[in-house]
Amino acid sequence: MTLIKSISGIRGTIGGATGDTLNPLDIVKFTTAYATLMKRRQGASHASRKIVVGRDGRISGPMVRQVVCGTLMGMGYDVIDIGLATTPTTELAVRMSGADGGIIITASHNPRQWNALKLLNNEGEFLNKEEGNEVLAIAEAEDFDYADVDHLGQYIEDHSFNQRHIDSVLNLKLVDTEAIKKAHFRVCADTINSVGGVILPDLFKALGVDYEILNGEPNGDFAHNPEPLEKNLAGIMEKMRGGGFDLGIVVDPDVDRLAFICEDGKMFGEEYTLVSVADYVLSNTHLSTADTQLSTVSNLSSTRALRDVTEKYGGTYTAAAVGEVNVTTKMKEVGAVIGGEGNGGVIYPESHYGRDALVGIALFLSSLAQKGCKVSELRATFPNYFIAKNRIDLTPTTDVDAILVKVKEMYAGQEGVAVNDIDGVKIDFPEQWVHLRKSNTEPIIRVYSEASTMEDADALGKKIMQVVYDMQ
To answer: Is 108 labeled as catalytic in the residue annotation?
Structure first.
């Protein structure tokens, strides 16, 4: 079964039987359920009903867009179709247009046969757990009520939001456009044949950056596995090794994840996208009152380097459960100046509460321009950690919750060891950590571990995995 229903939306492979894949009937059902939730939250007296729809460059995008837009109009919502747009562009468009919500048609880093509906509230942020569960319940019950002929929604196309997104990035206080222009950077960017190829050239032009785009046609025929990991990026890494570029930039299909490549063709490290941007933001943020403190947030499976960099500036680091909505909720709670996820997701509240590769690029280039160093030299200034990613396959009879409780009890109370159970179990040792959590989409336990070498990280993960195997 490749139809995955979760609190953040619905995703699946295109084609096949209803209820089992992402097909027109299921798209209608979940779009209707989302619109029903929006109506219930807004109340009958709510006068203006508008939903923003944006999509990445996937092959199935036009089909899904037409189904989504028609369904929303049938629910009485005016549709603002912003066309080919990144996830952060769509998030900002909701706020900029005063819409009631938004739907992003993208399966993020999933392969070309996948697509998905990501659901936003009126702040342009992902639905919380309560709202997401309500959408699923409405869809399951098919508790729908469509508009009559006199109250159908209107269809509006507005392709201004890519430029408005770029303008908002340029207006951020810490984006030093003048320094970037003076640096005369030359970058190579792999945009995976999706919407990065539409918006990044305009961003580079606005910043005065010379550029070359690889895989820039937004046709959804991805040139390689679209997840921005080293094993998938041989093409641009080889291009960088040929010389002539200061920086390599890689985004995923909806441009909310960001990875850098050094001038010598070596990976900067996806985990270090957020670390490097946070270092720049922390070093240039001056709080207005003495009783406040610099604060950062990332999820439990992200590198310890963010904590180290935060503490270097006298700040406080906080870990959140995995998932963007969990990170943003914690960021608001602690007043974080920057946060995100170790998968290359930068969340900068001065812009908006969403992962945004455009913001990450502009802040990173500002830092690089001001420091006047090479990318590899900048990378060498940060603590060096390595993360190993393993998995434990589960059987139908495995009691995952009982296993996690036992692992927690084994390490709780040990001197120098901190145990966090807000999302699975994370065990923090003085020099390394391991995090076990049940996957929401596969019958596995994810085992992430970090240490000062990859060998030590993998050994730690395997050690904890053996503890779990011994319990079964």
So the answer is: yes
